[in-house]
Write a structure and sequence with these properties.
This protein is of the alpha/beta class. The protein has eleven helices and eight strands.
Length: 251
């Protein structure tokens, strides 16, 4: 299998892509395949780091078949999991993506282009759901609007930037169990402003994400269960964090 991921430990890595994964055998192949296609613009300069979290399925075997680096972190805390991957990253540029998402072929080209301007500290991406419905749109709205009010105008989904800046802001907040991504983006934006740079959004490429949570809980899930939105805003609610992420079993 030709993957375009760097495998030689002596190679100089430009991009390190961190992928937390807990029993993702149904999804991780599609994620890695899309990243491999995006990596073809930078042959030998992109590594994928899959952080295995309490996996009991074929996630590790699939990741290794694509030439990804694997490491284990069994924390029930996405910040700890992502930070473990960032620490292991050899690339100058770091990106994080969820295992049930995938990117367009030009994603790394666009990230590189924005960083090369010197105007951006990092940022997020334009994101699409794999399918659309009124319920999904309303559920997204009831979550996104309160988070925007709390954390400001930041894009999420896939985070990118120089590793040195991820480290400068202390990585993802390990005291948070939910919405740690929005809180991280808020701190990156402030760090950028301090350094005369903007928090950007990749607009000429797109990341698509699965609708598995809606498939399982229903498209109107967040409209019908507003207490989950409150848990996102709190960020430290173990019960709802486990229910929404860490103990979630997809059918």
């Amino acid at each position: 299998m030709s993957t375009h991921f760097a495998s030689d430990t002596d190679q100089e890595i430009k991009f390190s892509i961190i992928i937390p994964a807990r029993n993702e055998e149904k999804y991780i192949g599609r994620c890695l395949e899309s990243l491999a296609a995006a990596a073809s613009a930078f042959p030998g300069q992109v590594e994928a780091i899959v952080v295995l979290n309490r996996c009991t399925d074929q996630t590790e075997a699939i990741a290794k078949s694509f030439g990804a680096v694997t490491l284990v972190n069994d924390s029930k805390n996405l910040s700890l999991i992502r930070n473990a991957g960032i620490r292991a990253a050899r690339g100058e540029i770091v990106a994080t993506i969820d295992a049930d998402s995938w990117v367009a072929d030009n994603m790394l080209i666009e990230i590189n282009r924005l960083l090369a301007t010197g105007q951006y500290i990092g940022g997020g991406v334009r994101t699409a759901f794999e399918r659309n419905s009124l319920g999904i749109a309303m559920s997204a709205l009831v979550l996104v609007v309160p988070l925007l009010i709390k954390y400001g105008m930041v894009s999420v989904g896939l985070f990118w930037g120089y590793k040195r800046d991820f480290e400068a802001v202390g990585g993802f907040n390990e005291h948070m169990l939910m919405a740690e991504d929005a809180e991280f983006a808020c701190r990156m934006k402030k760090w950028g402003k301090k350094n005369g740079k903007k928090y950007g959004t990749v607009t000429k490429s797109v990341m698509t994400t699965s609708c598995r949570k809606f498939d399982q809980g229903g498209d109107w899930v967040l409209v019908k269960r507003p207490w989950i939105v409150l848990a996102y805003l709190k960020g430290t609610d173990r019960k709802h964090a486990d229910e929404t992420y860490y103990e979630m079993e997809y059918k």
